[in-house]
Amino acid sequence: MPELPEVEALTDFLTEHLVGREITRVLPVAINVLKTYDPPPMALERRTVTSVARHGKFLDIDTGGLHLVTHLARAGWLHWRDRLPDDPPRPGKGPLALRVALETGEGFDLTEAGTKKGLAVYVVADPGDVPGVARLGPDPLADDFDEAAFAKLLDGERRQIKGALRDQSLIAGVGNAYSDEILHVARMSPFKQTATLKPDDIHTLYEALRTTLKDAVERSRGVAAGRLKAEKKTGLRVHGRTGEPCPVCGDTIREVSFSDSSLQYCPTCQTGGKPLADRRMSRLLK
Predict the structure, then answer these.
(1) pTM metric for this prediction
(2) 96 by DSSP, 3-state: which?
(3) Does residue 99 surpass a pLDDT of 90?
């Protein structure tokens, strides 16, 4: 799933390639991705892109007061085309969900792989009209997101820190992959309870949050849209690396599986050398 660093990089890429360009065609191929119908997607045609922004993991293309907002979900992606095919796409079983064509002949496709569909596209006058955007918590890379603001967010929380980091209404933009990375840098168990965090823990976690995301953004900056997925994978230290040696201590990276996701961690770095229990127990093995 694209998270804050990848969507930030896509924002930079599209700012360079879209701003000042006129949209000539918007072609929905998979109607199920459209979450709004008034105004219709075709209302974006003959409008000029004025800016591109990010809200958490949402991408926002502004055409002077009418916004194309998309959430790529788990298996969605944006593919830039220097030259779009002349023939319009045909609805079918392929991954193509929506195509946006520019006056220059360039454009982009939104695609989604797999059978579980989550890609979402909205056309709205205000990004705040998108329910997922409206409920977002603060952006962790914002200038005013300091350690005091982070501590205030966690005050009163009673849950595992992994879940807190992934909660978009608490902190915008962090998903499964980067929460694993942040906790590894902070040397904390994903099952650690937020209520047990001491001031020193909050400081460590805040620094890990900011540095991990900033480093990922810098790695992704200037990378073409088509290479961002590969760039993300190469920069991850524990997520998706079950069975590999930890790059810090050399211990074997372990995994805890859930019904629709999994987490990865290093026992030596994060749990005192003890493997985490089965997901149904959610505690350390004795």
Answers:
(1) 0.92
(2) strand
(3) yes
